[in-house]
Structure formats: C-alpha cells, structure tokens
From TrEMBL:
Superkingdom assignment: Bacteria
Name of the featured protein: Amino acid/amide ABC transporter ATP-binding protein 1 (HAAT family)
Gene3D superfamilies cross-referenced by the UniProt entry: P-loop containing nucleotide triphosphate hydrolases
SUPFAM superfamilies: P-loop containing nucleoside triphosphate hydrolases
Ranges of residues in domain ABC transporter: 4-249
Keywords, sorted A to Z: ATP-binding, Nucleotide-binding, Transport
Natural source organism: Pseudoroseicyclus aestuarii
One Pfam family here: ABC_tran
GO cellular component: plasma membrane
Amino acid sequence: MSILEVRDISKRFGGLQALSDVNISVAENTVHAIIGPNGAGKSTLLNCFVGKLIPDTGSVSFDGQSVLGRKPHQINQMGISRVFQTPEIFADLTVIENMMVPCFAHRDGPFRLHAFESVPKERHITEMAEAMLDDVSMLEKRDLHAGSLSRGDKRRLEMAMCLVQEPRLLLLDEPTAGMARADTNNTIQLLKDIRRTRNLTMVIIEHDMHVVFSLADRITVLAQGTPLVEDVPENIKGHPKVREAYLGE
Ligand code: ADP
Ligand code: MG
C-alpha cells in the first residue's frame, strides 16, 4: 500500500520549469530514493511534500489525506518529518537541550501520550530525550554544545530530533552531504538500524550512489524536473537513461 502519492506535480520559478508532471508512489515501510543530477528538482520536490513550497499543479497525499494547503507544522503533525540538507539544530544549545525542543512539541501536539500523564512531565520529557539519544549512540554527548559536534554527529542529532516525534514518513535531503567516508558509513548503519527497529517509510535524496544502493528498495531518477526511470536498484545500475542523465552520454 502506498503511503505517499504524488500526482502530476509541476512547479515553475519564473522562467524555469523546476518540476513537470512528477508522479511518484511511495510504498509503506520502504526506502524510496530520488536521485538525479544537481538542479534536477529533488529538493524542490521534497519542499512540496512538507508545505515549504506549493506546487502550481498536481496533488500530494499522505495516508489518503491531501497535504497541499496545509502549513509545514500541520504536515509535521500528520506524521511527516524532514532532515534538511544543512542540519537545522540550535548551535548554542547543548545536545540534550536541542532534543527537548521536539520532545515538547511532540508531547503537546496531537500525538500526546496519555499513558504518561501521571508521570511528572519534565522527567518524562528528559527520559524520552535521553532514550532517543541512546538509540542514535549520542547519549555520552548530551551536555556538549551542538555547534561543537562533527558533521556526522550534527546529522545524528538532527535525525534523533526528527525520530523522537515518531514520524511515519521520514524525508532525508542528502543526509551524507559533505561527510567523510567514516561518517557516511555510520549514517548508512544508523539508517539501516532505524529501518529495522521502527515502522517507518523513508524518502531519501542522495548523491552518493554507495548510500543509495545500500538503502533503497526503489529508486526514481529525476532529470530536469521529470522522472526518467523508476525501478529496483539492480535495474537502475547501468541503465542507459541514468547514464545519459548523469554523464550526458
Ligand atoms: P536539486 O535539489 O535536484 O539539486 P533543486 O530542487 O534545488 O535541485 O533546484 C531545481 C531547479 O530550481 C534549479 O535550477 C534551481 O536553481 C531552481 N530553484 C530551486 N529553488 C528555487 C527558488 N526558490 N527560486 C528560483 N529557482 C529555484
Ligand atoms: Mg537539492
């Protein structure tokens, strides 16, 4: 069953047609990668899923409900979370303080866990934050300033901040961009662990083919705002259209 249905999305920026008639169907509990050369429209597409951009035409529905016309925080409350291309964390706060922000938002939002209401609230929030940090192997860094973390750890913290909200759909925009190989491999492992232990669908935009082929169940290749091919990874490797899009052959 598909959890995200994208139908005939188009988006124009002035004279530039960034997306034209994009159709994508993402099956529940899968990892769906969107790849394509720089400027293909990948981030624009993701922005349409989270309410940061409104497409000119088409529809986007999540779990049967339209997301178009909703504000980013409302879409977030529907169960869609996004990891940005540049980590969006509070550099001057500590790791645990960063974690508290989505924890409070989550508790006070529509997903409030009534079962915990008898527990003193602050304590529960701290426990929730610490448990999540432990899940991403960041607990020992809880009191460090987020600004002082390595790129990989910043990404890890940002992912924890998303996951603590228990999203059903996690959108990742180039999660390994600018990372050294060791951090990239750690991120792949983290995403594999997340996938194994949680009921979660992921849409991942990624340049690094090693990451894409390690994680994706299906791949859509986007070029100049249009999907060229969609298939399982085995059939994408060496596909003539993909080589053409990347290498101009
Ligand atoms: P990708 O993420 O695949 O590299 P983007 O979605 O960022 O590509 O961009 C697709 C095209 O749209 C690019 O040519 C980019 O310059 C253009 N673009 C993206 N956002 C805007 C914007 N806010 N205003 C004008 N042009 C934009
Ligand atoms: Mg991009």
